[in-house]
Structure formats: structure tokens, C-alpha cells
Amino acid sequence: MSWHPQYRSSKFRHVYGKAASKDKCYDCVPITRNVHDNHFCAVNPSFIAVVTECAGGGAFLVIPIKQTGKLDPHYPKVCGHKGNVLDIKWNPFNDFVIASCSEDATVKIWDIPNQLLKRNITTPKKELLGHARRVGLIEWHPTADNILFSSGYDYKIMIWNLDVKDTILSKPVKILDTHKDVVLSMSFNTDGSLLATACRDRKIRVIDPRAGTVLQEGSYKSHRVNKVLFLGNMKKLFSTGTSCWNNRQIALWDQNDLSVPLLEEDLDGSSGLLFPIYDSDTHMLYVVGKGDGNIRYYEISPEKPYLNYLMEYRSHSPQKGIG
């Protein structure tokens, strides 16, 4: 009879969060009041971008990472959308290119200059006109440069190739028409060969974007899914959502079998969404509550129990977005 100790050694047992001092924060940023369930900010090694409140149309701010402190009220914006901006994402291959999508049913690609903005940027590098209704999500392909996925309230996911010379594109390379309702979340695996989606019809799907076919589809009656995330190349999916009793819930899935989750856990009774973010280098997973000040973090391991709770960061100020 072998004896196994109950504890496990972790490299990250003592990870803890700490709010930055005031001089290292970005102050007086007019964050959007929109209630759309999205990140509302995006960050890369050079810039932080934040969707902002503005009259007539949609805009976002792009601030160099080093430019902390109080923001000038007349700081230039990136504005060219006729409706609220719903999602912004930096190009993973180019720190000076960002995509935005909006309630005006367009997706726009912007070039951000290397120096401080002197005036508003109003002309996009490219404009993608394909969706019939507002566009709620965009996602860059992780390994193919200049390939962008957009998902709209017309229930379609469109794949765009931005390597063409035209500035206005109205024909996507491919349309994934596999959803019967609004797509709430999209996530790629590490090499971009699979796309996972969470849909308002409560189903999680794993799609082969090249073929446009659904490889796996799962809906589990006790888990209403909101956000889904590929855990790097672990062949697992992580989802956040709510239980039948409206508790906030997390679940872990095998990407090849979505019939029953590997693990399901109720967290609390708050009503805000949970945003998951995964760092594949450290195998750390962060679950951020919208509308509360909690960030829980876990370590992911390939064998059971898969998900190891580490710590929780708590703040009194409610979170609106995450990057």
C-alpha cells in the first residue's frame, strides 16, 4: 500500500496581487459606461487601449504604457466609429496595429504612431463591412499574420484577410454560419487550428475554422456558459457561467468530449460576469469578476485535480474590464 501525501508542491503558492501606487496608475480616464459584456481594454508591450465614453459615435484611447499619471482631458482619441465601440484587440504580430468593432456593424483596423498622439485618429487603415448587425467580438488569429475573426449579432463569424491592398473590404475570406444565436465568446488554441465558441444558446462548440465544421458541441444542463477559453495546448477548455441556481460557476472540459465537464465548481452568488485569462507560460489562470473587485487565480496541471486554487486578490473598487 503506497502512501501519498495530501499536499502538492506549487511554484506559485505565494502569488499575491497588489494595487499599483497612484503615480503608476492612469488617472482621469473616462471609461465607457456601456454595459456590453466585454473587456473594454487591451494591452500590449507598448500601449494600453481603453474604450472611452464619448458623445456621438464610439472612440477609444491609446496611451503609451510609460505614460502613467493624470491624463490630459483633451488627450487625442481614436474615433471613427458611428456607434459604441464594443471590442478592441491588438495585433499579436505588430504592436502598432489595433482592431476595433462597433455597434455600427463595422470592424476597423488602425495604425498607431510610434510617438505620443498629437491629434485624433479618424481615418482607419482598413474598414471591414460584412456584418448586417452590430459586431460584438473580434479575435486575431494567433499564428497567421493579418487574419482576423469577427463575430456579430447576425450570428455569423467572418474571417478576414488583411493582407490585401484595398482599404475597404466587404467580402470575408470565409463565413462560419454554425450558430443560431449570438456568440458570447471566442478563443483559439495555441496554433490557431481550433476555435472554441460560447453561444447564447448555452452551447460550447469547438470549430475547425479552415473547414468551417463543428467538431464538438456540448451543452450541459447545469452550466449556462458565458465565456470560454482554450487552455493553451493542454487540450482543455475552461468556461465561466452560471448554475441553475444563478450562482457564478467555472467548468473545465476535455476539448475532444464536451458531453460532461471534467470539473464544475460554484464560486459565489454575485451577478457579474467572470472573465478568464490564461498565461500559458506559467500555467496560471486568472478569473476576474466584473462589477466586483475579486481576481481569483489558479494553477492548471495536466493531471487531476487539473485546477488548483492559489489565492484571491480583493479590492473595494469594482472592475469594469480586464486586459
TrEMBL record:
Report which superkingdom the organism of origin falls in.
Answer: Eukaryota
- List membrane-spanning regions: none
The family database entries (InterPro entries) matched by this protein are listed as: Coronin, DUF1899, WD40/YVTN_repeat-like_dom_sf, WD40_repeat_CS, WD40_repeat_dom_sf, WD40_rpt
Pfam assignment, any one: WD40
Using the record's annotation, list all stretches that form the DUF1899 domain: 5-69
Query: Mind telling me which SMART domains this protein's record contains?
Result: DUF1899 (SM01166), DUF1900 (SM01167), WD40 (SM00320)
List GO molecular-function terms, semicolon-separated. Answer: actin filament binding
Q: Where are the WD repeats?
A: 78-112, 128-170, 176-217
Q: Which PROSITE patterns match?
A: WD_REPEATS_1, WD_REPEATS_2, WD_REPEATS_REGION
Cite the entry's keywords alphabetically: Actin-binding, Coiled coil, Repeat, WD repeat
PANTHER family, A to Z: CORONIN, CORONIN-2A
Q: Would you identify the family this protein belongs to, as annotated?
A: Belongs to the WD repeat coronin family.
Q: Which named protein is this?
A: Coronin
Q: What organism is the protein native to? A: Cettia cetti
**Gene giving rise to this polypeptide:** Coro2a
